[in-house]
Amino acid sequence: MMMGTDWRKRSVVVTGATRGIGRGIAELFARRGAAVVVTGRDEAVARKVADEIACIGGGRVLGLGADLRDPEAIETMAAEAEGHHGHVDVLCANAGIFPEKPLREMTAGDVDDVLAVNLRGSVLTVKAFLPAMERAGHGRIVLTSSITGPTTGYAGWTHYGASKAGQLGFLRGAALELAPAGITVNAVLPGNIRTEGLADLGEEYLRRMTAAIPLGRLGEAADIAHAALFLASDEAAFITGQTLTVDGGQTLPESLEAFTPASR
Q1: In which element (H, E) is residue 209 found?
Q2: 121 to each of 88, 126, 130, how far by Cα in Å?
Q3: 160 classed as catalytic
Q4: Rounded to whole angstroms, what are the CA distances from 123 to 50, 81, 101, 118, 170?
Q5: Across 78-118, where does the E strand assignment appear?
Q6: C-alpha 175 chain-centroid distance
Q7: Which residue among 62, 139, 184, 185 is least enclosed by CB atoms within 10 Å?
Q8: Is pLDDT above 50 for 1?
Q9: 96-140, pLDDT tens digit by residue?
Q10: Could you tell me whether strands 243-246 and 139-144 are parallel, antiparallel, or unpaired per DSSP bridges?
Q11: Cα dist. 155→86, 101, 158 in Å?
Q12: Domains of the chain listed by start with CATH number
């Protein structure tokens, strides 16, 4: 009989894990018994969140600070994570920013900031953790992309959409390069997930987004966390270079008129 993944033997790094989806991912892995590294731009906040997660997840949680715009900080983070837990089996490259800015008002600096964190940061984070995974002889990399960019568009987030679509181009090439080392690379594409960042957009935005979701609710961080857990598991060992959309069916209808009264 096939046994499930023994997470007590796994070490997991989650970037951008001090809030929202990243924190949800880190909490789930910790609850399953994995050793977890929580990273965020503010080291003090990362340590505080790590302590909070340790209280609910069994204790083996480390908080590290790293600004993904800084390549040296990424390399230091990777070395500290491996040094603390002895190995790294799973990398959830989740960190990202999504400032709104109309295209006509966008500056080169606006574009650079989003691409530096969301796209370049993802690429350099994966690169930094490769030696640890290669030493272990296996690895799971899970990117947090988005439906915005790869599947849909949204006015005001053109630079964000470009960064998230770019992640998937990187994913496919990386999956091919890393397959011989036993390392898989996949991505979760969240729809509208109830997080602090989404709440900041206001009640009217939340109402309109909920109305566009066939399942009738916004997603929760746990919905994305369970998708990441699967892609990081032994059971997903034969899956690489793929994307998993978790959006409550949001990208299915061609318009709100496609909803039938019976489906609402």
Answers
A1: helix 203-211
A2: 18, 9, 14
A3: yes
A4: 24, 18, 24, 9, 7
A5: 90-93
A6: 17
A7: 62
A8: no
A9: 999 999 999 999 999 999 999 999 999 999 999 999 999 988 999
A10: unpaired
A11: 44, 9, 7
A12: 7-248 (3.40.50.720)
Residue 76: CB atoms within 10 A of its CB come to 15
H or E element at residue 65: strand 61-65
* Residue 65 CB-half CA count within 13 A: 7
Contact between 240 and 179 under an 8 Å Cβ cutoff? The reply is yes
What is the distance between the terminal CA atoms of the chain, rounded to a whole angstrom?
41
Distances (CA, A) of 163 to 3, 46, 76: 38, 24, 24
Phi/psi region, residue 156 (left: phi>0; alpha: psi -120 to 50; beta: rest), is: left
* Cβ contact 166:222 at 8 Å: no
Instruction: Return the percentage of the chain with pLDDT > 90, whole number.
Output: 84
Angle separating helix axes 20-31 and 221-231, nearest 10 degrees = 60
pTM of the predicted structure, to 2 decimals: 0.93
Q: CB under 8 Å, gap of 24 or more: what pairs does 129-132 form?
A: 129/13, 129/78, 129/81, 129/88, 129/91, 130/178, 130/181, 130/183, 131/78, 132/78, 132/81, 132/82, 132/87, 132/88
Separation between Cα atoms, residue 22 and residue 39, nearest integer Å: 9
Map residue 153 onto helix, strand or coil. coil
Q: Which amino acid is at 107?
A: T
The active-site residue, picked from 7, 157, 160, 170, is: 160
The confidence band for 3, taking pLDDT boundaries of 50, 70 and 90, is: low
